[in-house]
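I am writing to request your help with a piece of structural work I have in hand. I am sending you one protein, given as its amino acid sequence and as whole-number tokens for its backbone shapes. Kindly check, if you would, that the fold set down in the tokens agrees with what the sequence suggests. You will find the record immediately after this paragraph:
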Amino acid sequence: MTCLSIVIDCDARHWGELTEKENNENMICTLINSITSYTTAHMSLSAANRIIIIGADSALSEPTIYATNASTDIDMNSAVKTAIRNALKKSASSTNTTDSAVFAPAIAVAICHICRYKNEIDNGDGRILVINIGSDFLREHNILMNIFFAAHKHNILIDVANIGETSPILQQASDITGGTYLNVKKPRQLLQYTMCFMLGKASLRSAFPSPSSSTSVDYRASCHCHGVPIISMGWSLLFQRITATTGIFVVFGGIALGAYKLRQSSDSLRGSGVYWRNQEMEDFVHCKEENLKRTTKS
């Protein structure tokens, strides 16, 4: 008895870009049919199973676009296809210029649905499948990490079927929660991948080889403020204000992002004797008590 919450990237721009990249006009129909077949397979495992489909896009005022209802679902396949198509139509007609889909609220809603299912069904289980078509998560990194840890606390797996470039943040989601991460290089094979590696519940995963176990997870941070996807090295120094100026100097990957200038020597800063290295310019900065000095390494 499992509640499967499927979070789908419903940004119509990403679906259109994928169609152009694959040079296949039927790509959208192929993906929708794959998702529908996967939901049917899940429901066939138990009469008590439940399907929740959540759309991740800022154009959707209600993220839950489909939820199983045994009393009204005469044809579940048709209902699922219609729900996904309607979500894509809303996204395509939206004038919102957001760069990427809003995944954090969608995954949070998925966790809430699973927790409710566990309270209603004895020995109920739940997991999340994230289908990403091409969104990046730089501006949602901090929120998403908190959500991933919340899912881990509630014993909820997060599986990821990522279509496009590798997503380190989604890799972290699967690694933290014990799920499976898949980079789907051929979108038309989405159904085969999900059926082979993401259909079984948590207790059965150890009996099957996991494709994500052979790949290392990239836990390097990303700069959601400046749009830098991966940061190799970063430091942040915060100083206590004494007279007039608070100094904040942040270096990411050897590039200084910003600093407040000192007005006079009287505007002293109380440092802690911290060194940090500018990797590209080979500079060292040493902060001592009463002032901030910068010297260039010879």
